[in-house]
Amino acid sequence: MSEPEQPTAYEWMGGAENLLDLVTRFYGYMDSLPEAAPIRAMHAADLDGARQKLFKFLSGWLGGPNLYWEEYGHPRLRMRHFPFPIGPAERDQWLLCMRRALDDTPMHPQLREAFYTAMTQTAQHMVNQEPS
Predict the structure, then answer these.
(1) Structural domain includes residue 29
(2) Residues 117, 121, 127, 130: is their CA dihedral positive or negative?
(3) Which cofactor is recorded for it (predicted)?
(4) Taking the CA of residue 91 as centre, how many other CA atoms within 13 Å lie in the half-sphere pointing to its CB?
(5) Considering the entire predicted model, what is its pTM?
(6) Tally of domains within the chain
(7) Cβ atoms 82, 90 nearer than 8 A
(8) Within-domain flag for 131
(9) Is 14 strand, coil or helix?
(10) Contact 122/23 with Cβ under 8 angstroms?
(11) Other beta carbons less than 10 A from residue 126's beta carbon
(12) Residue at 87 is within a domain
């Protein structure tokens, strides 16, 4: 008899609906927090495309449907972000928005912290500029 499958992080956080809520809150903070204005300026006027891409990426990354891969192929995050000057300040602005969005999204506290830790590592990997 086989072991029952463990739920994925995607399932633990509530699936597509809660993930979309998280991503929407994230971009809402990016759009409204004065502290996030520099990274907001790196995005298109309409955040819908960025919102959709982040949702699709996180869906597969969390163990849900692999929407990003199906549409765009390998994420190649660092390469895709390389045209943008990302230093520690931009990393921290991005993480501020993510922290606030995560704090507003219902989920188990351990999952929230694990998710934030992983996002912190990913954001650090995107840094391509020395501090000014």
Answers:
(1) yes
(2) positive
(3) heme
(4) 18
(5) 0.92
(6) 1
(7) no
(8) no
(9) coil
(10) no
(11) 16
(12) yes
**For the domain that residue 29 is a member of, what is the CATH number?**
1.10.490.10
Single-letter residue type at 16: A
Tokens 């990426």: give the residue.
57
How many C-beta atoms surround the C-beta of residue 94 within 10 A? 21
Which tokens is 19 given?
Answer: 């993930």
Domain range holding 104? 10-126
Is residue 59 within 8 A of residue 48, CB to CB? The reply is: no
Residue 82: both structure tokens together: 């390389």
Is residue 83 within 8 A of residue 128, CB to CB? The reply is no
**Chain Cα centroid distance, residue 125:** 13
Per-residue pLDDT of the chain (132 residues; tens, 9 = 90+): 666 688 899 999 999 999 999 999 999 999 999 999 999 999 999 999 999 999 999 999 999 999 999 999 999 999 999 899 999 999 999 999 999 999 999 999 999 999 999 999 999 999 999 876
SS3 65: coil
Which CA distances in Å does 50 have to 18, 44, 64?
Answer: 17, 8, 19
